[in-house]
Write a structure and sequence with these properties.
Layout (H helix, E strand, L loop, with lengths): L4 E5 L2 E4 L1 H8 L3 E6 L4 E4 L1 H7 L3 H4 L13 H7 L3 E7 L2 E11 L5 E9 L1 H17 L1 H17 L7 H13 L6 E4 L6 H11 L7 E5 L5 H9 E2 L12 E2 L1 H4 L4 E5 L9 H10 L1 E3 L6 E3 L3 E6 L3 H6 L5 H7 L2 E4 L10 H16 L9 H7 L5 H15 L8 H4 L17 H19 L3 H8 L3 H11 L10
Parallel strand pairs: 8-15, 8-16, 9-12, 12-15
Antiparallel strand pairs: 1-2, 3-4, 3-7, 5-6, 6-7, 10-11, 13-14
Helix pairs in contact: 14-16, 18-19, 19-20
Length: 465
């Protein structure tokens, strides 16, 4: 009789004998393939989860839990541990990736221990901590950084570099200017920088410069004395620059700050001095500024709508968040992650159809990650059956029709401009000076500067003559 096989992983099948071996283990064990589907589950694991082991094969992780771990395993390419509290006690779950010769995840093993086993693990862990305190401290810092940067998901090299760069700049007190399109995650990046900083336990204050009328923005930022103007609070009010003293102030949509307020903000940043409206008394503040914008500040400077000296005061460290269309290899990863999140939220068990990855990569995503989140949530909420929506049905929520790579109706000139912008951007990100970036591209620095302004790219500030 020919030996039966369970579903294959990669190019090699797993013998059915693994069922016998797995069921002999006291530990609860399950195996998942590289697509996150259950390959095998022993009796102990099925009993802990309250599911049928045979029926579980081929199902996603959400088949037995609303809090999936596999998205983090595939994202960070390392072991993930989690403790879950149940009515009958605690359960300790470990997901361990197994790699093939090329370094890609071949499958993921998952173990589950009950509270008695968990206590034994805890005792062993405490002994390990006592003997390897320094190593554990280093790993804890790495885990903390990974947790903080988790919202900036992506395997594309631009996102890997971004996360490493934010870890580098986070501890400083230097001002940061974050640029990027709407929905790409500028505020998320600001939150990461603040959480990584030495001021993370101090006040973190946010204000959207575009959401507050100009005549109120000044009083919000700088505060006012009692009776400074009609309608003012009789006791006066602290401005946000004072409230954030010792911590961080996030100025969202800084490009929309009224020109008449910019000199006052510049003085506050240069000298740490704040004057409330209606007062001649100087108040000293120590605030780290993180600003963000989705407009071209260089063009605003040319138009006389934004002060150049304020720009350089804000852009001590420029950070650019790439739009989703520039990292299309991340789109399906993000979509799958949000699918698992929303399936858990709405108690659905859905997968994407086979052809949806091509559809998602063909779309331009003008709303970036925020739009992708909305589309996936729509998919989960509006799917009438467990088979999900078809690609044709899903396209109805896109902002414009999918016509293949590039924006609809884009000309050859548009596509050449997009390619030129990408080359300039990569050179400016990877080289440490304007001159080096220009040399790499085979053009002079003045040409690079002109083209960078054309595309709204942040320029390096040269330190030498």
């Amino acid at each position: 009789m020919q030996e039966q096989l369970i579903p294959p992983v990669g190019d090699e099948p797993i013998p059915a004998d693994i069922r016998t071996v797995g069921n002999a283990f006291r530990i609860s064990l399950a195996l998942f393939d590289r697509d996150g589907k259950i390959l095998y589950m022993n009796r102990s694991f099925a009993r802990e989860c309250g599911v049928d082991a045979d029926r579980a094969v081929g199902q996603p992780e959400t088949y037995f839990t609303g809090d999936p771990m596999l998205p983090d395993v595939f994202l960070y390419q390392r072991m993930i541990c989690r403790t879950i509290r149940r009515m009958d006690g605690f359960v300790f779950i470990t997901a361990i990736p197994m790699f093939d010769e090329a370094g890609a995840i071949r499958f993921v093993g998952m173990t589950m221990e009950n509270e008695a086993a968990l206590n034994e693990v805890r005792r062993s862990f405490e002994a390990l901590v006592a003997s390897t305190e320094r190593s554990v401290h280093i790993q804890s810092a790495a885990d903390r950084h990974a947790a903080i940067l988790r919202p900036l998901m992506g395997r594309h090299q631009s996102m890997v570099r971004l996360r490493e760069f934010l870890k580098q700049i986070g501890p400083s007190s230097a001002s940061v200017l974050i640029t990027g399109e709407s929905g790409c995650g500028k505020e998320v990046a600001a939150d990461c920088i603040q959480a990584l900083s030495s001021r993370s336990e101090q006040p973190y204050v946010k204000i959207n410069c575009a959401a507050i009328p100009a005549h109120l923005l000044e009083s919000e930022l700088f505060g006012y004395e009692p009776g400074a103007f009609t309608g003012a609070n009789a006791k006066g009010k602290k401005g946000l620059l004072e409230v954030a003293n010792g911590g961080t102030l996030f100025l969202d949509e800084i490009g929309d700050m009224p020109p008449e307020l910019q000199p006052k903000l510049l003085r506050a940043l240069q000298h740490g001095e704040v004057y409330r409206i209606g007062s001649t008394k100087v108040r000293h503040t120590d605030v780290r500024i993180i600003a963000a914008t989705n407009v071209d500040l260089n063009q605003k400077i040319v138009e006389g709508k934004f002060r150049e000296d304020l720009y350089y005061r804000l852009a001590v460290i420029p950070v650019r968040i790439p739009p989703l269309r520039e990292r299309k290899s991340d789109i399906f990863l993000l979509a799958s992650y949000y699918l698992s999140i929303y399936c858990g939220k709405y108690n659905r068990n859905l997968v994407f159809p086979d052809d949806i990855e091509e559809l998602l990569k063909s779309y331009d995503w003008p709303g970036n990650v925020r739009e992708l989140q909305n589309v996936v949530e729509y998919y989960v909420v509006c799917s009438p059956t467990s088979e999900g929506l078809s690609c044709e049905q899903l396209q109805t929520v896109f902002r414009h029709p999918v016509t293949g790579p590039g924006r609809p109706g884009s000309t050859l000139e548009d596509k050449l401009d997009a390619y030129e912008k990408q080359l300039l951007q990569e050179a400016l990100e990877e080289e440490k000076s304007l001159r080096r970036a220009a040399k790499r591209l085979g053009i002079d620095a003045s040409t690079l500067s002109r083209k960078a302004r054309k595309y709204g790219l942040a320029l390096h500030r040269e330190s030498g003559a």
